[in-house]
Design a protein that fits this description.
Layout (H helix, E strand, L loop, with lengths): L42 E3 L27 E6 L2 E2 L3 E3 L5 E2 L1 H12 L3 E6 L5 H6 L5 E7 L2 H4 L2 E16 L16 E5 L3 H7 L10 H7 L6 E5 L2 H10 L4 E5 H9 L5 E3 L5 E11 L3 H17 L1 H8 L15
Parallel strand pairs: 2-6, 2-7, 9-10, 9-11
Antiparallel strand pairs: 1-6, 3-4, 4-5, 7-13, 8-11, 8-12, 8-13
Helix pairs in contact: 1-8
């Protein structure tokens, strides 16, 4: 699964960068700040979106009650470890650009939005299994995902490498990562891109490209949360953190000078989508119509600008083939 994530967003979620458990399938970074527990599935009512832009007066399609697991409620699965798009504040309340976008969509459809924190690697099974109505979690639109869910484009972002300030390993190109360890969140396109799995054929994997050039493979270290991958970088157990563009910018802007983005190394800029069940065509149409209205009246861009990620704005919600 994926995400895609420049942002000066204040202290609200600045601490989220350095919060998170240190356990993973790879070596754990040490030392690390004391983590704040994050519930695996914790419903919370989302924050209200800005109201300074008046919503369009055009009528929107009614959401069929059969497309919702709870009448009058839009239940959203989101991996809230991905600031600035989705994270939990000090009170464990979901915040971020994605949270505000879907809250505004829900408001226009007359629905109360509830966000369930869900591990990204299991987020599509959670949707198809009936845990939630939709996914809003910085998911890159891929062919494999579109076989499982319908995806409505709402943002776009590339993949970037975060390194320690001063770039001690002198990373300028992908080749400079050959033979080094790189951290990524499990299930993301970044992890797939390195390993040559998912939508990436083996030959397209960054690690395989190193081997094809006679260089050592990249050692991929995956973590259950993006914040844990950043802790590994901070601890010096990896040379870089591979993540989506908005997240990379957020980590640098809120990292107190500890991190930097490798310049001129933005890969695979691609759209992200709001995921809906394939058979829930009524819900798909309603969400698309509400988002189109937000694009038209300026609310959409206002929310992205608030979070400093307006460079990733889309101009159309037309399906991506």
């Amino acid at each position: 699964m994926t995400r895609s994530r420049f942002r000066v967003v204040g202290v609200l979620v600045a601490t989220a960068i350095l919060v998170g458990a240190c356990s993973s399938s790879a070596a754990s970074p040490t030392p690390a700040p004391t983590p704040t527990p994050t519930p695996t599935v914790a419903p919370s009512e989302a924050a209200s979106a800005p109201a300074s832009v008046a919503p369009t007066s055009a009528p929107l399609p009614t959401v069929p009650t059969t497309d919702l697991i709870a009448a009058g409620t839009l239940t959203v699965c989101s991996d809230t470890s991905y600031p600035p798009q989705e994270s939990l504040d000090a009170n464990q309340k979901p915040v971020g650009s994605d949270v505000e976008l879907i809250t505004e969509i829900g408001k226009r459809l007359g629905l109360t939005v509830v966000v369930k924190t869900t591990n990204f690697n299991a987020i599509i099974p959670a949707l198809t299994g009936g845990t939630c109505d939709i996914i809003v979690s910085a998911q890159t639109i891929t062919a494999d995902r579109q076989k499982q869910v319908a995806m409505i484009p709402y943002f776009q972002a590339g993949q970037e490498f975060v390194v320690l300030a001063g770039n001690p390993d002198n990373i300028k190109t992908v080749d400079d990562l050959c033979g080094k360890a790189v951290a990524a969140e499990d299930g993301t396109v970044e992890a797939m891109h390195i390993s040559g799995t998912g939508d990436y054929a083996a030959a397209d994997g960054l690690s395989q490209q190193c081997v094809a050039k006679g260089k050592k493979a990249i050692t991929l270290k995956t973590f259950t949360a993006d914040t844990q991958a950043l802790l590994a970088l901070q601890a010096g157990t990896v040379a870089a953190h591979f993540t989506d563009e908005p997240v990379a910018g957020f980590e640098v802007a809120n990292g107190q000078g500890k991190f930097a983005v490798v310049p001129n190394l933005n890969l695979e800029r691609a759209p992200e989508g709001i995921s809906v069940g394939l058979n829930h065509t009524g819900l798909q149409a309603s969400i698309r119509a509400a988002l189109d209205a937000m694009l038209a009246d300026g609310t959409y861009l206002q929310i992205l600008t608030k979070w400093g990620i307006q460079s990733g704005a889309v101009t159309s919600t037309a399906p991506v083939s």
